[in-house]
Amino acid sequence: MTKYSTKLKIEITNKILSNKASVNGLSKKYNINRSVIRRWTVLAREQGLMALKVKHKKHNYNIEFKLNVVKYYLTHDLGMNQVASKFNVNPSQVLVWTNTFNKLGAIGLIPRKKGRPMKKTNYKKQDSVNKNTKLPLSEKEKYEEKIAQLEQKVYDLELSNYCLKGLRAVMKDYQTK
Predict the structure, then answer these.
(1) Lowest mean pLDDT among 7-11, 32-36, 42-46, 50-54
(2) pLDDT at 1
(3) Are the C-beta atoms of residues 53 and 2 closer than 8 Å to each other?
(4) Which of 81, 97, 98 is nearest to 45 (CA)?
(5) Distance CA 138, CA 164 (A)
(6) Does the global pTM surpass 0.85?
C-alpha cells in the first residue's frame, strides 16, 4: 500500500498551485515533509496532475531510457529532483543510475533479472565464473558511453573555464584598486 493517496497528492498540489496555501502550512496540517510536497508540486508543474497518480506497476526501464536520464543529469545543471520530475522517475533512482554509470559505465545500466537464483548444483563454481566475465558492449552502447563521458568532460571544462574567467575579473578589479 502506498503512503499517500493520489487524491491527497492532487488536493495538496492544487492548493499550492492556486496559491491558497503555503508548503509549510500544508506540511504542518497533513504532517508531511516539506520536500515531499515540493517534489509533488514540481512534478505537477512539469507533467501535470496525472503524474501524481499512484503507480502499482513495477517499471522495467530499458538501457536507452536510463542512459538518457543519466546524460541529461550529467550535462545539465539541474538537481536530481528536477531531472526526476522531467522523466517521471524517483530522484533516488536517478542517483542510483548515475552512480552505476560512473562506476561501471553503460554496461552497468543493463536490466538484470532480480530475485533468488534457482537451485543449482555447482552453484559456487558458476557464480565465480559469472563474476569474472563481463558482458560485451555492443557498438552502439560503446559509442553512447563514450558520448556521455565526453559530454560530461565538456561540461566540466566549460564550468572550470567560466570559473577562471570570473577569477580573472576579480583579480583585475583587485589589482586596479
Answers:
(1) 50-54
(2) 41
(3) no
(4) 81
(5) 39
(6) no
